[in-house]
Design a protein that fits this description.
The protein has about 140 residues and is α+β, with helices and mostly antiparallel strands. It contains three helices and four strands, in the order αββαββα. It is globular, with a radius of gyration of 24 Å.
Length: about 140
């Protein structure tokens, strides 16, 4: 009887320790949700097999860094968009005249924004329309 009781107490202690260890492992490694993105500009309209013209990286947490020429401004623009990448687009600048030829350009954002996976792309009819629509947005200014 005494042997069964010590086994039960030992088993309960092991379960308690295992549960506490499981809780400790579930804690985040840092106070910041990860935000690391790769931005690219590609020639063509096929996002699945693009011909990348240029690309850059940005990590926003805990500090802005990456190969982007201005990671602080890019992170600020992403934060103001709330991770909704369509908000980076604006109405084309009406004072900017663009040719009406079709030479598609696709911009992409792939990675993790505030802990959630992101894969976004948008195709413009040409690079002039892209510049007018992004209108100097810091994220794609590379």
């Amino acid at each position: 009887m005494r042997h069964r009781r010590s086994i039960a107490v030992s088993a309960a202690a092991l379960l308690t320790l295992a549960g506490a260890a499981g809780i400790a492992q579930a804690q985040p490694e840092s106070l910041y949700a990860p935000s690391a993105m790769v931005f690219s500009v590609a020639q063509g309209d096929d996002a699945a097999a693009p011909t990348v013209v240029r690309a850059t990286t940005v990590s926003c947490a805990p500090g802005a860094r990456g190969t982007h020429p201005d990671p602080e401004a890019a992170c600020a623009a992403l934060k103001s968009a709330g991770g909704t990448f369509d908000r980076l687009l604006s109405e084309p600048n009406p004072d900017r005249a663009c040719p009406m030829h079709y030479d598609p350009v696709t911009v992409s954002a792939v990675g993790v924004w505030e802990g959630r996976r992101v894969a976004w792309h948008h195709t413009f009819s040409n690079s002039c329309i892209m510049g007018a629509t992004l209108n100097g947005n810091a994220v794609f200014a590379f």
